[in-house]
Amino acid sequence: MSSPDHQAVSANPPAYNDNTPVQHEVVLNEKDGMDFDKENNAVTPDGGEPTDNEKRSLRHIAENLPISAWLVAIVELCERFTYYGMSGLFQNYVFRPLRNPDGTTPADPGALGMGHQGATGLVTFFQFWCYITPIIGAIVADQYLGKYKTIVLFCGVYLVGLLILVLTSLPTSLEHGAGLPGFIVSILIVGLGTGGIKSNVAPLIADQYKRKKMALKTIEKTGERVVIDPALTIQRIYMIFYGCINLGSLSLLATPYMEKYTGFWSAYLLCLCMFAMGTAVLLLGRKFYVVRPPQGSIITDAFKALWIMVKNRNMDAPKPSWQAEHHAGAQVSLPWDDHFIDELKRALVACRVFAFYPIYWVVYGQFSGNFVTQAAQMNGHGIPNDLMQNFDPISIIVFIPILETAIYPVMRRLKIPFRPITRIALGFAVAALAMMYAAIVQHLIYSAGPCYGKPLCAAGPQGNDVHIAIQTPAYVFIGISEIFASVSGLEYAYTKAPPSMKSFVQSMYLLTNAFGSAIAEALTPAAFDPAIMWMFVGLACASFLCGILFFLTFRHLNYQEDDMNALDADDPLPDEDHPRRGNEPHDH
Q: Looking at the record, which segments are called Disordered (predicted)?
């Protein structure tokens, strides 16, 4: 088998062998340890692969999702319901002080009273922590437990953190000073739980789809011959997956009103109950999942191999064959084979695409932080300021079906390519529009009375005379940018990662969000009036420039997309008789 890395960077796609038989991928079911072939995924409907000419001339289509993928999507929906319904209230929870017993002052709900900068700092830290911890989840999954058991484990951790948050947000707990320490402990535990889940649930849903090679199919109703394209199915899986994420995030339609009229504790309790239901679905649906086994010391071996690459300034240096050639007569023991190093090189190709993402995540993070505070500076007309966040998921829920059922199919019929690199670059540009619009809204706020440049002054505690609805397009732009940048990032992390490193590469993608949160944390001192307007302008310029640089740097990968997606086609999942990596040391 040729080197995956060589194929990934080849300028000219290799010719396909039309006579090559379709590989039957063997999957290990964690439930009973038995090998089995997934019916209808291992064989092509018409018994053969398309030729190069057929790939170019025939229409490409995606397949429907298996039931097990929908079950994973439901679990993610419940988790995101909890995460957004809970964290969407954090800005107000930390920002404003606790209401007096008579409930008259302050007018809006709060708990910890740490002010704008204190709230933005803690919320940004929580976001940072949630995207550092996926590395822990990836190591546990890829080396020890597998994705499914790891998700179950971290669901338990998540539940503990939620319980602490509920108990310490009760009125009596807040009155006795338990609010701040309880909040800090809970966000640390919840962040660990959500990180362990996030690095595994995205690859787990795509694992449920087993086809690796393109296949011919004749549509019975029309007689049209088409090409079933696994890459398009993975794209559809992550579009639906992201749609479920945003359905779950509509919890913010309910929790702000619970916060306002009942108390934060009731909103957090709702989130706890929803997450418990999602955990129950995960446990009860266990027999339906296709689960890949852990790969042993995959992560630690990867870092050892990376050190050998750096030390020798050669990416092939960790290969046993390279060691044998350059250290003739020496005894060299390595716990991997050449193929493992080829996989690692391929993972590095995938990871470097994520280098530009931190700037995008700084922009994305504004919708749950500074946008909430901005909404509080306008006349809400009875609408809670943190309710406006729902326009982000609503826009995603509206536009995903439009793209998936109308725009993308038309583009494919017209043979207009819309590859991941192009979609990601477009996502950066749309995010820049969101920031520019937010800057315009901030300018309108400063231009309106009664407080003008000092919103929420004593003369206008309900905000300046600007209707809160004017903020809506900023959230819509953020949502559209997510469909292009975030969904495509999830897709890229899965399709370009080797089978043995899916969770690890996913954690590297999520880690870029942590870097984005760190940058946002550094920008916290600028989160005051009137400097915040110029911060929005700066983020708009940075996002737009990053989109251009990203496209210029990686556009060549668009032309190698099919080759990289096909690398797993002849690479069956390891089993006891045919391990992927060398389990015994190599002596040379």
A: 1-54, 568-588
pLDDT at residue 221, as a whole number:
87
Give the whole-angstrom CA distance, residue 66 versus residue 76: 16
Residue 491 in contact with residue 238, Cβ under 8 Å?
Answer: yes
| pLDDT above 70: residue 445 | yes
Pairwise CA distance, residues 263 & 274, whole Å:
18
pLDDT higher than 50, residue 309: yes
Q: How far apart are CA 307 and CA 317, in angstroms?
A: 10
User: Are 471 and 378 a contacting pair, CB within 8 Å?
Assistant: yes
> How are beta strands 215-218 and 225-228 bridged, if at all?
antiparallel
**CA 383 to chain CA centroid, nearest Å:** 30
Q: How far apart are CA 117 and CA 525, in angstroms?
A: 7
- pLDDT at residue 41 tops 80: no
Name the strand (E) or helix (H) holding 78: helix 67-87
Q: What is the pLDDT of residue 565?
A: 67
Provide the 8-state DSSP code for 327: S
DSSP codes, 150-215: HHHHHHHHHHHHHHHHHHHTSHHHHHTT-HHHHHHHHHHHHHHHHHHHHHHHHHHHHHT----S-E
Which three-class secondary structure state does DSSP give residue 60?
A: strand
- The answer to whether residues 411 and 423 touch, using CB atoms and an 8 Å cutoff, is no
The pair of structure tokens assigned to 2 is 């040729």
Please give the pLDDT value at position 264.
94
Rounded distance, CA 116 to CA 92, Å?
9
Average pLDDT estimate for 406-429: 93
* Helix, coil or strand: residue 28: strand
Q: What is the pTM of this model?
A: 0.77
Answer yes or no: are the C-beta atoms of 456 and 377 closer than 8 Å: yes
pLDDT at 549 over 80: yes
Going by the DSSP 8-state scheme, the letter that residue 456 receives in this structure is T
Spatial separation of the C-alpha atoms in residues 81 and 76, rounded to whole Å:
8
- Calpha distance 372→241 (Å, rounded): 26
Confidence tier at 239 by pLDDT (50, 70, 90): very high
Q: What is the average per-residue pLDDT within 562-575?
A: 56
Stated as kind and residue range, the H or E segment containing 364 is: helix 357-365
